[in-house]
Amino acid sequence: MEKQNLDWGNLTFSYMKTDYSYVSNYKDGAWDEGGLTPDHTVTLSECAGLLHYCQEVFEGLKAYTTKNGDIVCFRPDQNAQRMYDSAQRLCMPPMPKDRFVKAVEDVVRANASWVPPFGSGATLYVRPFMFATGEVIGVAPADEYQFRILTTPVGPYYKGGVKPVKLRVSDYDRAAPRGTGNIKAGLNYAMSLYPSVDAHANGYADNMFLDPETRTYVEESGGANILFVKKDGTLVVPQSFTDSILPSVTRRSLVDVAKGYLGMEVEERPVKFAEIGEFVECGMCGTAAVISPVGEVDNGDEKVVYGMDHVGPVMKKLRETLTGIQSGEIEDKYGWVHKIDVE
Ligand SMILES: Cc1ncc(COP(=O)(O)O)c(C=O)c1O
What we know:
- The protein is α+β, with helices and mostly antiparallel strands.
- Helix content is 22%, strand content 28%.
């Protein structure tokens, strides 16, 4: 299979059409068979539930080429489960998990020429999403839905090496206590756009959001979970007592890497903002970057500094181990790397 003629190493994180998307429709209480389509547009009724009551959930994962040339993606079953949970929370019919994984395989296989070569640092970003197409005018769940997957090639997250970033504590919340912060719904991101634009305008990579009930505990950033390291090398993973942190696939994998590969101690517990000055490293984790080291967190005039000029050794080791497992250079002992057969 001939690869597309792209400058893989210089792609940005922006949308580029590939050959196919995947589409399946839900009507009369059932999902249709679904399949690939070369049509990358969606036509909707002006009264579609999506447009009025925001019934939309999505996922994000990546397909890439391993060292030995296989096309793979990372733990798609976890994205299937999370989208299942997200859909149920918004009264949408969940896509069966085996069908979700098969749809990811089908669309990646059909776009194999768009999967970047090993070593380029680029990936094929896979975006499954589901939205209400059925008409509703009173506040209620719709009765028709569409599930789609689009793919788009994206460049390496870090060009020229991993660099620490700055966060600031936001005056806004990204989620409500016991609201929808623990699911991946577009509505959460609408809510975080204003603080995100404002953070960027003020020179920060992202916001650190505190718990929306007491504003005392660390939750997560606009697009990643947060990790800390204690002086004794223990990994500290903030938990939300208001259930408003997104369960990141990367974070859960890093916890398993820390325990099962690196023999580290891990504490998963609520973390007070007041204690983060005692930690020696901080990072954000998510599919795109795996780990972005955080060099500084500002809260008004208060600054917590971990160091903007170096990446802490624990974040470095965790990142290298997980990316090594993903690329096939380190043994995949938990069976996370999911091969897609391409003829
Ligand atoms: C709010 C938020 N938290 C965390 C994550 C990281 O999750 P994952 O590791 O599954 O990409 C993301 C990205 O999907 C996110 O949008």
